Amino acid sequence: MDFDRLREKHEDALIELMNQYGDYLLRTAILLVKDYQTGEEVVQDTFVTAFEKIDQLQDEEKLKSWLTTIAVNGCRSRMRRWSWKNIRLHFDTSMELLEADESAVDPEEALLTKTADEKLSEAIQSLDYKYREIVVLFYFNELKISDIATYTHLKENTVKTRLKRGRNMLKDIIEKGEGYDDCGEESDKSATQ
């Protein structure tokens, strides 16, 4: 990508930027806000902001991290709104849109993998945002602790603590099954007692 053309505000450079980083940012946003449409809005806002303020970025090597910071801040902004705190969003359809490879050799294996992925997704979505954000950036975006600290404006030790707590919470959620049996249906524990 030609960074100079982007700084000169050429639309074709913006389109190239969107093609290069769009999927990466969309995946991050969906995992953070739990909604495909809102994730798309965050990414669109990210590109608009980046295009408008590209002069603020001095180092071309930091473009990806700068875009990630803008997107994470956009997700945080949406998560602070009342409607996000009080309305449970449906995550299932969002994750179906993110499935990268549906070509499995064994249908049974594909079903088991999909079930495990759904359970993990549900577990991640049940975390408080401050833990979910760190877990997503570390595991799904494969960022280093130092980079996460930079993007989130947190100290590295805070990131490490939240990551550890997030992992422990995920482990507890998955081990307990959150009241669901292996088929994903609510189990009737009172009938067995």
Task: Provide structural commentary.
With 193 residues, the protein is mainly α. It folds into 2 domains: 1-98, Rna Polymerase Sigma Factor, Chain: A; 102-184, Arc Repressor Mutant, subunit A (Orthogonal Bundle). It is built from 11 helices and no strands. The longest helix is centred in the N-terminal third of the chain and has 23 residues, at 11-33. The radius of gyration is 19 Å and the shape is globular. 24% of the residues are buried. The model is unreliable at 82-95 and 179-193 (pLDDT under 50).
Low-confidence stretches: 82-95, 179-193
What is the mean predicted local confidence, pLDDT? 77
Percentage beta strand: under 5%
What CATH calls the topology of the largest domain is Rna Polymerase Sigma Factor, Chain: A
Tell me about the biggest sheet?
A: none
| Structural class based on helices, strands and sheet pairing | mainly alpha
Number of strands: 0
CATH class of the largest domain: Mainly Alpha
Short synopsis of the structure:
The chain is mainly alpha-helical. The protein has 11 helices and no strands.
Feature tags:
Arc Repressor Mutant, subunit A, 2 domains, mainly alpha, single chain, 11 helices
Write the SSE topology:
Blueprint: H1 3-7, H2 11-33, H3 36-52, H4 63-80, H5 82-86, H6 92-98, H7 107-126, H8 129-140, H9 145-152, H10 156-176, H11 189-192
